[in-house]
């Protein structure tokens, strides 16, 4: 699928990068989330039923909210250890100065010091620093360094980073992303799935919580990222819409219901302790 085919506006008008812009319920587009050949694997049927319940309840997610693959990648860094609403504030600051273009972002003064300290009692006349712009996302100093590392990689790709992400063999590309300062497995897989349109499985804190609470992977809280990624990859259909909707639905459940104290009574999924 070309990049142009992945840039959309949701029916509500919000830009997003994803496989399908329609509001057609997932269940009308695909038979389920689990691959046919995986249905006999432990937990596969229950996992599919859980995701179909979440999908029926939350509807199409139109995720990832971004107007370009670069914005996806920036958001994937900024969302580390913070809630998405804080990321939105930081993205709005970057958007306001045109810094959701990689060359513009990299040209920003990295820090307040580099931007020039204002004289006492006077506002700075120079451009805002990257650190100042992303401050709402928290950990702004380390995230500024990470963003600069990722953006340097982005601009160095012959033929463009979007083509690299969409076409390079994953066996080479994923380790290369993981070698960039600040890009861990969840960030790399988010970039590959949503910016690159690659059907990879993303593991995040909400995934661990849901898999554990539904007794699908009882030790999920302590399992390694790669162990959970392999569990998901063995079961989820290797289909781009499936991979995108799966992650977006788990995020929705985590935000709305599957909190440290779960609120199963209002969740679209069936309470695992009443099944
Ligand atoms: S809130 Fe309850 S029903 Fe919903 S996903 Fe979490 S454990 Fe499952």
Quick structural gist:
The protein has 275 residues and is an all-alpha fold.
What is the N-to-C succession of helices and strands? HEEHHHHHHHHHHHHHH
Number of helices: 15
Spatial sequence of strands, sheet with the most strands: 1-2
**Parts with pLDDT < 50 across at least 5 consecutive residues:** none
Output the CATH topology of the largest domain. Endonuclease Iii, domain 2
What is the domain tally? 2
Task: Please bin the fraction of helical residues.
Answer: 40-55%
CATH class of the largest domain: Mainly Alpha
Tell the overall outline.
globular
CATH superfamily of the largest domain: Helix-hairpin-Helix base-excision DNA repair enzymes (C-terminal)
Task: Give the name of the CATH architecture of the largest domain.
Answer: Orthogonal Bundle
How would you characterize the largest beta sheet? 2 strands, antiparallel
- Distance N to C terminus: 40 Å
Bound molecules: iron/sulfur cluster
What proportion of the residues form beta strands (DSSP E)? under 5%
Q: What integer is the average pLDDT?
A: 94
Which structural class is indicated by helix and strand composition?
mainly alpha
